Amino acid sequence: MKAELQGVSARGWICRQCGIPLEILPVDITYMGSSFQVELPRCRQCGYTFIPPDLAEGKMLEVEKILEDK
Fold first, then answer.
1. Helix runs in the chain, H state only
2. Collapsing DSSP states into helix, strand and coil, what is residue 70?
3. Torsion angle, CA of 22/28/32/34, rounded to 10 degrees?
4. Is 67 helix (H, G, I), strand (E, B) or coil?
5. Domains, the chain, ordered by start
6. From residue 2, how far is each of 6, 12, 21, 39, 58 by CA, in Å?
7. Which class for 13: exposed (0-12), middle (13-18), buried (19 or more C-beta within 10 A)?
8. Nearest in space to 40 (alpha carbons), one of 1, 67, 6
9. How many helices (H) and strands (E) does the chain have?
10. pTM as predicted
């Protein structure tokens, strides 16, 4: 399952470790035995993934609650 998250941008974000711009890349997320593939800002070199606060506190929190209720 690949989820597209509208409004997530890598523009202006630089990997602190590598010093290169983050790119929107596929990321596998696993929570409570369920796996999802989403596109998030990620460093192509080291794999660091940035999850914007509004996404972590909004959409991802919503999904967590749904999975926990199952």
1. 53-57, 59-69
2. coil
3. 140
4. helix
5. 2-69 (3.10.20)
6. 13, 25, 23, 8, 18
7. middle
8. 6
9. 2, 3
10. 0.67
Residue that has been written with the tokens 């941008």 in this structure: 9
**Tens digits of pLDDT across the chain (70 residues):** 344 455 566 778 999 999 999 999 999 988 778 788 889 999 999 999 998 887 777 766 776 777 677 6
Cα 49 to Cα 14: distance, rounded to the nearest angstrom: 11
Question: Could you give the C-alpha distances from 22 to 1, 15, 31, 39, 41, in angstroms and in order?
Answer: 23, 6, 24, 12, 5
Q: Which amino acid is at 70?
A: K
CA distances from 41 to 6, 55, 70 (A): 12, 12, 29
Helix (H, G, I), strand (E, B) or coil at 41: strand
